[in-house]
Design goal:
By secondary structure, this protein is of the alpha+beta class. It has helices at residues 6-15, 74-96; strands at residues 25-28, 37-42, 48-52, 55-69, 107-114, 119-123, 127-141. The longest helix has 23 residues, at 74-96. It is elongated and about 55 Å long.
């Protein structure tokens, strides 16, 4: 039986985050223009950290980004920033609990972490794109 692509497994894992509203859409490599949408996007990286005989230590880097309401109202902007603080704390908690996406039998996840705080990447008078980078480190056995 073939396993799901890693990005789909990451998407399922993120959908389980209680900070993100169940009604909010989580896309892959696409972020719409309307508020309250999310995307998971691959980030270019060197996938192999260390090669072993019959296995390798690898990494999967990606960002979680969202389009949110944004403007002069400071309470809205504070809430947006707080969402990413809470998302970072959720990822840390998932790592401590060893609750990871399922990458399949030959891949054993070792660690999940955010590699930066959440930040605005673009903004206009009505919406902003926030994102936070994440990294998953895992061992992969050759099959």
């Amino acid at each position: 039986m073939a396993t799901q692509p890693m990005i789909e497994e990451i998407r399922k894992w993120i959908k389980g985050c209680p900070i993100i509203d169940e009604e909010d859409r989580i896309n892959v490599n696409y972020l719409g223009v309307e508020p309250s949408t999310y995307t998971i996007e691959d980030v270019p990286t060197t996938p192999v950290l260390k090669q072993y005989l019959g296995s390798a230590l690898k990494q999967k880097n990606f960002v979680i980004a969202s389009r949110v309401s944004y403007g002069i109202d400071e309470l809205t902007n504070i809430a947006n920033s707080g969402l990413y603080d809470n998302l970072s704390a959720w990822v840390e908690g998932q790592n401590k609990a060893r609750s990871y996406p399922d990458f399949g039998e030959n891949k054993q996840i070792m660690n999940t972490k955010t590699t930066s705080t959440g930040y605005i990447i673009e903004a206009d008078a009505g919406t902003a794109r926030y994102q936070i980078p994440l990294q998953i480190t895992y061992y992969e056995k050759e099959v």
